[in-house]
Amino acid sequence: MAKKITSKDEDFSQWYQDVIREGKLADHSPVRGCMVIRPNGYALWENMKDSLDQMFKDTGHENAYFPLFIPKSFLSKEAQHVEGFAKECAVVTHNRLQSSEDGVEVDPESKLDEELIVRPTSETIIWDSYRDWIQSYRDLPILINQWANVVRWEMRTRMFLRTMEFLWQEGHTAHATKEEAVDETKQMLEVYRTFAEEYMAMPVKTGVKTESERFAGAVDTYCIETLLQDNKALQAGTSHFLGQNFAKAFDVKFQSSEGQHEYVWATSWGVSTRLIGGLIMTHSDDQGLIIPPKLAPNQIVIVPIWKNDEQKEEVLDYCHEIMDELNELDIRIKLDHRENMSVGWKFNEHEAAGVPLRLTIGPRDLENNNVEVARRDTGNKNIEDREGIAQHAADLLETIQEDLYKSAQQRIDENTHSVDSYNEFKEIIEEEGGFVYAHWDGTAETEEKIKDETKATIRCIPLEDGEQGECMVTGKPSKQKVLFAQAY
Amino acid sequence: MAKKITSKDEDFSQWYQDVIREGKLADHSPVRGCMVIRPNGYALWENMKDSLDQMFKDTGHENAYFPLFIPKSFLSKEAQHVEGFAKECAVVTHNRLQSSEDGVEVDPESKLDEELIVRPTSETIIWDSYRDWIQSYRDLPILINQWANVVRWEMRTRMFLRTMEFLWQEGHTAHATKEEAVDETKQMLEVYRTFAEEYMAMPVKTGVKTESERFAGAVDTYCIETLLQDNKALQAGTSHFLGQNFAKAFDVKFQSSEGQHEYVWATSWGVSTRLIGGLIMTHSDDQGLIIPPKLAPNQIVIVPIWKNDEQKEEVLDYCHEIMDELNELDIRIKLDHRENMSVGWKFNEHEAAGVPLRLTIGPRDLENNNVEVARRDTGNKNIEDREGIAQHAADLLETIQEDLYKSAQQRIDENTHSVDSYNEFKEIIEEEGGFVYAHWDGTAETEEKIKDETKATIRCIPLEDGEQGECMVTGKPSKQKVLFAQAY
Ligand SMILES: [Zn+2]
Ligand SMILES: [Zn+2]
């Protein structure tokens, strides 16, 4: 049976769509730019969500839920914020339909006094609540996270990477001091880095955004950036130090322990279903999805083989014993005993779904006390002893997790360059893509010129101090090299 | 320090608001009819969600996610469905704002070709997907659940019980046969009954709705109904057998194993944050929330008492040892060692938050190897031996769970009547409220007349066969008594 996945080298963009379709992660929806997240995709998101949620709780955060709708007037309270989001807002203007000749129409009588915006992000509605919750320094810090859907009316959309509606988490914290807020911003950046690298096996660069790439309303935007298999960069998570901007816009002050009234300091931080797009483009291959074991909905699939009922019973008994042993090691496992499809068809399906390990068990394995073990990432198959198979599989899952990270790290290292001249820069960006470190004079004009001429943007300014030098474009002084790439 | 909770007997409705406020469950939001679910309320919802989600998965369901927006034309594909929801729809008509003199205004140029409805429920958008997913009997059943927010533009709202936006789960299943779909409908009703009774300690009656109370688009609506402390009924969950209505509206057919093309059979079922309202009105008292141990965010709070630093260290050591023992029993526990508030203040706070058990530990307890244990539900305080305290507390949590159920069951039994005359019916409904079983002739006219004259509605027709009789209003034949009450 032919696989329906276009080769990555032939057409990366089509390959990506094919991997999503064959892995049954998501479908296009009849609403332009929205998607349907299918059970396989949602189970992956649930695992990502559970891991992140635990990391948020371990760092002292609680979950809460704020309204989907934001009064239009709230958005405009913070000047940069509204400028950033005004052009991509879903606006609710009416609250009733009525019968019409060919179905239903909006009832013009039901027009709202004030339009409601479907949240593109929740800073405004949340800081309106924080005004009521914060009186004194004793009420601080507030460390809240929300899991929610948000809507940004994007014109060019792509499954997971950029959709009109997406699922995400948004942390919103309030602090008594600037230092504490900056520490929180950096702490959550580190949580994101850890999650990306240790769970997603997706190496990232960290840094701060330039002013032109900053979140609308932030003082500083910290980010994690990764490099995908087509050598384009992806912003995978952001953590914003908001200063006192939202506190001032919503008049949120607290009485300090010295009795003074001061504006509250804020952060916000978020990652979204976009991470799934990053995961796919980091690891997957022409056979479909590859999912790191820590996040895989099924970590192991067992495919039993039999030719008659007697064999069936024996083989399934053998499989169940192995399953029991795997269950004791808390491994997520699936036994695929469907009868109306061929073994080859099952192999393809589980490959396309990215199950990290496959155990194949037939009558000959019972005779020899064996199990065939196949790795999804390398395609390696080995015959292993039945004895100790569960621990062997558990160890192998750890190895796969590490190998995926190493292999992605190696790919990114190989595609990260450091240049000194603009000619070299343009050549690499044009011919190879990838991450390029280069000196920049710190001005928005030069940044814009580079973007216009090469489509490369500054992904981030590294947090570590670098060597001084001269801007590759203008020759003016540069404090350190910054990280460029063409990006999604 | 005075409690700020109005007495239940004095003003039930105000009491309910006060309990929510003092328990820090939720706030009113600036968007009319929406609420902010605060960390205490959301942690309760998370526990409810986790328990239900496990029950759904144990019965073979998977989670997925469908778009927030539904094209207007989809709603009108099922005639009864659109009639049921047209008058309470949030309608998105534009996708852009622009600057205006005093902030922002809707950009009239951004009007959508087809308006989008914020989902009031997802049957239509989901069955549009199912058409693509279902070709053959091999694709069935589809057993999918979605955790999501939905919007219904309600005019009279009340925290948790009826809000414009609410959080819920909606199951949507597709089956090859009518029998299988009916079985699924009943299975999920049973899941809801189990959850309500065993987790929420909230006894419920089960049955089917009359035609006038049926879900818009359903063939049969099964429900769980409970009776609250003000003797009003609450519909706490519904499970709908949808027949082939949505399959026909969205043209979803499958090829049977005999090669015939047939319409698919459907169910849908949901519970929402409304359950939190039911939980509050079932158990809480004039001191605030009472939460059954299985769902309590914190099952035990430890309040240490000390007068000087030396005592502090000793007391906290003693507390931590007990916490370790409780942790080993997987009990959710909080140590309240805040220094800037009085013990009395802490007691009130944890009472208002509904923490089932409080352990108080001071220097004298250390001397005597004791712990003071206070039950939230009964207010009983006992001095217990330090030795074996963890197991004692675990047992007590189970006892509390059972006692809450028994006490609610007793209250509901005492307030459930069976009558034979309409005069008796009216007297009970008017003077006492509660559940009343009575004969009804099965017509919508009589149902309507009873509602107009007494505000009582038929909560459900019991699933068990009852004795035949004569309608209390018309004297016409009745197959069985049905359950009436005034309801939220
Ligand atoms: Zn190179
Ligand atoms: Zn009575």
Automatic annotation (TrEMBL), chains A, B:
Q: Enumerate the Gene Ontology biological process terms.
A: prolyl-tRNA aminoacylation
Q: Write the Enzyme Commission number(s) for this entry.
A: 6.1.1.15
Single GO molecular function: ATP binding
Identify the keywords attached in UniProt to this record, alphabetized. Answer: Aminoacyl-tRNA synthetase, ATP-binding, Cytoplasm, Ligase, Nucleotide-binding, Protein biosynthesis
Which CDD domains does the record associate with it? ProRS_anticodon_zinc, ProRS_core_arch_euk
Per UniProt, subcellular location reads as: Cytoplasm
Domain Aminoacyl-transfer RNA synthetases class-II family profile intervals: 32-292
Major localisation: cytoplasm
Q: GO CC terms for this protein?
A: aminoacyl-tRNA synthetase multienzyme complex; cytoplasm
Report the InterPro entries cross-referenced here. aa-tRNA-synt_IIb, aa-tRNA-synth_II, aa-tRNA-synth_II/BPL/LPL, Anticodon-bd, Anticodon-bd_dom_sf, Pro-tRNA-ligase_IIa_arc-type, Pro-tRNA_ligase_II_C, Pro-tRNA_synth_II
Q: What does this protein do, in the record's words?
A: Catalyzes the attachment of proline to tRNA(Pro) in a two-step reaction: proline is first activated by ATP to form Pro-AMP and then transferred to the acceptor end of tRNA(Pro).
Self-association or partners: how does it assemble?
Homodimer.
Q: Which NCBIfam families match?
A: proS_fam_I
Q: Which PANTHER family match?
A: BIFUNCTIONAL GLUTAMATE_PROLINE--TRNA LIGASE, PROLYL-TRNA SYNTHETASE
Which family is this protein grouped under? Answer: Belongs to the class-II aminoacyl-tRNA synthetase family. ProS type 3 subfamily.
Question: What does its UniProt record remark on the domains?
Answer: Consists of three domains: the N-terminal catalytic domain, the anticodon-binding domain and the C-terminal extension.
Name the chain's protein: Proline--tRNA ligase
Q: Which organism is it from?
A: Fodinibius salinus
